[in-house]
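#help-structures
NK: newbie question, is this the right format to request a structure? protein is Response regulator receiver domain-containing protein
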Amino acid sequence: MLKSNFSYIVVEDDLHANQSIVKRMNQFENWNCIGSETTLNDAILKIEDKKPSLLFLDWEVIGGNTFTLLEKINKIEKYKPYIIYFTGYQNDNPQIPVDIVNKYKVNKYLVKPIFEDLTENLSSYIEEAENQLKHQNKELWITTIEKQKLKIDANQIVCISQSRANPRNKFIHCSNHDIFEFKASWEICEMIALKYGINFLFANARDTLVNINYISKIQKPYIWLNQSIKVEVTKDKWKILELEILKSK
């Protein structure tokens, strides 16, 4: 199955509402849920660790209100997720929308119940989120095995392959033919692809992660990337690959 390009988290202590949001998001194939949290502390830890692209945030959750979370997000360098914020306490706390608009600048502010609004507008919210994320900074910093810190334009990543000499190391192949070796698990590589919106899939059993946008030639069972990199695609990945190529045309 093709991995999603974008990630999101739901922070809502009402389990029914939480899962209802996840269920509605399942229709968007480009989006992957990395958590459905009910407590403030768990949400903070997950967001600081995974940095999802889209946040669904309820104002009041177990452990406090999520203004604390918004303050932490504002302090994370180069992290600007799309935020859909909601509450059922606006009448009792009229300051909430004032702070949301003037201080925290979330993308969408909804008053509970939210599901009629999501039924009508979720598709447009997701389209807006994707457009915002695609135009954000794509600078990726890596540390090579030579201990050099390098900045890479994530849009130029053609593929990530595994070192045959040391499976713990991976090679990033760029469109200008630069190759950088760094230490990373496949989970980290997948997180990079998700975070930077790379249209990717694993061509085989976690040996090569390919950027579908750089496919220049197909001759089963191989594909060529950026005119020069030859990659074998396993049988179980061909149907996925063909579907994605059709989508991109």
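mod (FA): yep, format's fine, and the tokens are attached above. The first strand starts at residue 6 and ends at 11.
NK: thank you!
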